[in-house]
Write a structure and sequence with these properties.
The chain is 40% helix and 15% strand. With 277 residues, the protein is of the alpha/beta class.
Length: 277
Amino acid sequence: MYVVTGATGVIGRPLIDTLLASGAQVKAVTRQPTASLPRGARAVTSDDPDSVLQGVDSLFVHPRATKDDLARLLAHAAEQRVGRVVVMSAINADDEVSLQPSWFNGDRNTDVERAVVNSGLPWVSVRPSSFAMNTLSMWSGQVTNGDTVFGPFAEFAEPLIHERDVAGVIAQAMVDDSLLGRTIPITGPEALRMDQLVAIIGEALDRPLGFREVPSGVAAEGMIAHGLAKPFVDALLARYAREITRPIAVTSNVEDILGRPALPFATWVADHKDDWS
């Protein structure tokens, strides 16, 4: 029996699909009990943690979904002798929180990971790099309105990861004893610059998309005008500037754990082609 928190999110859905495909029983914890879930998953709420966690072999902790109730969740997991806890953190979780852009959006990856590691329960921490999905939120409006994507730091490159790879590694961590007690950074197969990412999107859409660099100050004004919080924007642009000279390293952990190479960005774009229209 497996429990998945954040069940209706970007990671929860493919994780449930992967677990169900292996023949597992899945309890899907969601604040939206009427939300559509993969067939075979049992929707539950966190109102009765003992009932949710009774007889559970493995619990997946999504940091955004559980941050407000984490202490209570882990206490109940210990009482019910849950076999292991797998937490999704982030590849930059060791950085000071002021250097983590997502912290300014309310994510508490570092705190949630530490709580799980210090819970006394068997644990695994999976630390993905930035999601390929982020390009959709950053650029879909510009792609809809024209053939040029404007942005800062054209030379910035990172190994974006497909959410299916994140879900696959988490699913393996929920069953594989050899991964217990490990902190596992996972990335896409290669680091790509902004212009390379935009070109790949254009190929999938059969459009000649291009990337044009703009000064960071101009980019910041545009992001804030479109509703992003200034502290988040400042931290994000500082990260871009910082990691041009010391980028995140590509890891082989997806391939080592799943037995196949990490999915390339082009595969992610093909999987989400309709989302760009």
